[in-house]
Amino acid sequence: MFAYYYPINLHYTDMAFGSIYANWLNLIHSEYQLPWDKAFRKLGLGTPGDHHIHHKLFKYNFGHLFMWWDQLFGTYKSILDYPAVFSDSV
Length: 90
Fold this sequence. Notes:
Blueprint: H1 2-5, H2 8-28, H3 37-43, H4 48-56, H5 68-73
């Protein structure tokens, strides 16, 4: 009965969001700096470098998509503070 009232265009929105988010999760595990990382970091979006800090220092950078929460609660550590733990080259 729920499917009867669920608009068909919302299914496409769910699929688009799911595809974008799945690709985002793959990219943050890439272990490389990507060309758009500086712009994303300024917007408060998570980057592979931010996520790498999370894997190296388990008590920081919990946000996978938005780093605003980490900045708000004081758990954000910038990759610029830890340059030796992350590769610059692709």
